[in-house]
Structure formats: C-alpha cells, structure tokens
Amino acid sequence: MTTAAAGSPRTYQVRTYGCQMNVHDSERISGLLEQAGYVRAAEADEHPDVVVFNTCAVRENADNRLYGNLGHLRPVKEKHPGMQIAVGGCLAQKDRGDIVRKAPWVDVVFGTHNIGSLPVLLERARHNTAAEVEILESLEVFPSTLPTRRESTYAGWVSISVGCNNTCTFCIVPSLRGKEKDRRPGDILSEVRALVDEGVLEVTLLGQNVNSYGVEFGDRLAFGKLLRACGDIDGLERVRFTSPHPKDFTDDVIAAMAETPNVCHSLHMPLQSGSDAVLRAMRRSYRAERYLGIIEKVRAAMPDAAITTDIIVGFPGETEADFERTLDLVREARFASAFTFQYSKRPGTPAATMDGQLPKQVVQERYERLIACVEEITWAENRKLVGETVEVLVAVGEGRKDERTGRMSGRARDGRLVHFDAGSLAGQIRPGDVVHTTVTYAAPHHLNADGEPLSHRRTRAGDAAEAGRTPRTPGVLLGLPTIGAPAATPAPTSGCAAH
Q1: pLDDT tens digits, one per residue of 272-311
Q2: Residue 252: CB partners within 8 Å, gap ≥ 6?
C-alpha cells in the first residue's frame, strides 16, 4: 500500500528546530512543496507522505535529537511504503552523506544553500528508489525568490541577508550558512508590501547580523535607510528586526528607530558576556563599555525602549570574576528579558577545542545565579508598567494557560508578552486584531491585563485568521541596490542565532 490514495495529492509535514532563520526557511519549504502540488498534512496525521526535518547544528546534542526522531520514524515508514523523509538545514549542511549512512531510510538530504531543490530531489529519489544527497557550498538562489507559505496572518519574517562575516569562536553558523549575502532594498520592500497587501500588520527583518546589511553594495548606512523606507509603507503598523551585532551598531540606526513611527522601540542586542576577557576569547569585537554605551544612546533617544539580549554562561576559561562582571552588566543594563544559555560544545567551532572547559556543575550553578539575577530585574522593570495602557497585537499560541484562565495573549509594541481578559468582547476578538488594555499585574516574563479592554480594532489580519486563511507570497526577484520599488523583471525560468 502507499500513503497517498491513487489520484490524491501527497501530504507533507515540516518539523523545525532552531532559530528564526530556520522558522522562515520552513515557511519557504512549505511554499515550495505546495507549489509542487503537495498538501499540508492534518495535525493528527501520524504518517504524512513526506516528512521534512529542518535542522539546527548549534547545540551539542542536535545530532542526537535528529537521529532519535529519525529512528522513531523508521518503523512508521516501513509500514507505509511510498513515505519519504528529507533532512535539510544546518545539520544537513554539516553532516552531509553521514546522515544517509547512519539512517539509510532517509530519502533526501539537502543543505542551507539549495532549499529550492527539494521538490526535484524528492521526485528523483522516488523515481530512482535511492537516496538523493545534494549539498551546495554557496547559495543557489536567494531564498526570497522562493514561494512562501506564511504561518501567521498578522506577522511575517522578511530576510534582508543570509550568512555571516563574523568569526565568533562559539558559533558554527558562518561555516554552514556561508558569507553574508545581502538582498537589495527594493527586493526587500517589495516583499514587505506583498505581505501588507495580504493583511499582515507586523514585519520582522531577519539577518544573522542586520547591522552589517549593505556591505555587499558598499552602503554602511543601508540598514537605517531600510528602516526609514519601511515607515513609508501604508498599512505596515510594526517593524522589528533581529539580530544586530554591537560592533556594527551605528547612531543612524538609533535615529531611524526613534524617528520612524512604525519601528517598534524594542531592541534585541546579544551580549554573550560582560567580561572583556571572555568577549576577547569569543572573538566578539566589542567590549562591555561599548555595549553599555549603545544602550545608553538607545534609551536617551527612546526612554521606553525594551532591550533584550543573549547571554552564554560557562564559556571555556570563564572565571568567577568574569561571571561576576556579567552579573554586574545585567544589573546596569536593566534588560526587559534575556535568553540565557549554558555553553555547550558546537562540533567544528574553535571553542570546542579550547583549554579551560568548565565542569557541568560549575556552569549549572552560575546559570542558576544568572537566571535569578535576570528575573529579579525583569520583574522590577515589568512592575513599572502596572497601570499603563498598552497596545496589544493579538496572537495565537503565545499563552499556555490562556485556555484555562480564559485570557487571550499578544505582544505589546515593545515586544512584551501580555495576557489580557477579553471581558464583554469575548468571542469578538481574533488573532491579528488590536486591543488597548491596562496592565494590572506583572510577572518576570509577562504582563496581565484583567480589566475590560479599552478598545478593540478589527483588522484584515483578524478577518484572515477567522477565515482560516494565511498569506502565501510568491518569490520576489532580486532588484537593484536602491530604496524603493524594483523595476519590472521577467519571471524566473526555474524554480538562514543569535549574534
């Protein structure tokens, strides 16, 4: 028997691990498969015709997780002839043919540079009844040229660059995603407009290092210009970006954030460590004083800015004094939230072979102290907002306890998570709608608003959510290096953290 009935379209499922870049890549994988005639499998379907793993190689145990999941699928595939399994993403780029050697029931392995090849590779593997492994060393086509099946009616990712030119000793991304390649501004703005035309209210500009955007076409001020250009797009209510790098952060970006009304006053600025010695060992080309100076300038221009960060604990050679410097910087910076990580070896990175690897119990103890310090600060910062009115873009799937409490959830303009009581508007507010409400309680990681909403605005994104319709955007061709809409271009002939 085969998994798809004769004449019916084949079904697919994409399982995503890792960063926002992978999440966005998975949207493109879904768009490609649907363009090729596949249909997304129902949530309850335990044996779709095609399962695609979009992998991450950042964590030490990433391969264990992948091979464990592949092992669980082996008996499922044996019971359903015709089922195919594909592995893509960073781990596929790193392990290549080893994946088929370790898991010979895998049908397709593709890398970070050739997502667009997936439908052809699946067909070739079916026809030849043999595994297809295709890994390219450089980008085949920019991901923006690929069709996308968006996951949200109200918010969308837009890549402005792929790859990274930095050489942080803990990070494997540059070797897997390649050198930075920038999209032209007209191309980016075309994609943003296409999303807004579909009803999307919020766009997040994505890059491994958004602040170095423009390096390819020689304009170091390009990112600030891009933010300002987004401000001219009617219907675009919120603009966010991730991730910047402190070494490239310039005053013109702060000015663009402060002066462009739809650019949110939220900034995710990875710190990694508050110790200059550790930053040097990480090959992070800034120091604690420079980092705090950026935050000071941001808050001078936008006193309401919510600043979030990434911090790694237990980097090789980190001393107790180094760790204390990180705690001191956290106390001074007053972060709205922090993504905290225990250092783990990334195979293939310089840090993995450094002297001074710390015992697990030392790293764990420091990690727990860091968490306690961060939560003390984020709770105090959140309490300052009790009694304030916030604008919430209503989301789906943000609050785990919403079903039990009867609350709905969404993000304030500064990125904070807000759980709110719909009150008499229960049943009328949809994901993608906008409400104004008053904060009544603060926790370290979220705000509650338990009074009646002050206002509710229905949106086209809410209409789409109610209808069960998500945006599907076609590929956008590369344009010229100018701000503004690109010139008409003929159709094509053939069809990637934290830093």
Answers
A1: 999 999 999 999 999 999 999 999 999 999 999 999 999 9
A2: 221, 224
